What does this fold into?
Amino acid sequence: MSTNQNPYEIRLQILRMSKEMLDAKFEFEWQEWLNKLDGNKTVALADRPEMYDPEDIVANASSLYKFVSDKS
It folds into this structure.
């Protein structure tokens, strides 16, 4: 992050980081589920991972921002 960013740019950066983290988590869980399918294990469609929603991105970003802004 650049030190000359305004608060809106910082929030946007944190939202992007949050989305990237959730993308990586979903991709890992999806690949894990596909591997179970390939291994002929008993796997139901209902067991597949669910994609996150925008509220998840904001919640994750809030926790990241809280950590960054904590002065203790």
Notes: The helical segments are 7-38, 54-69. The chain has two helices and no strands.
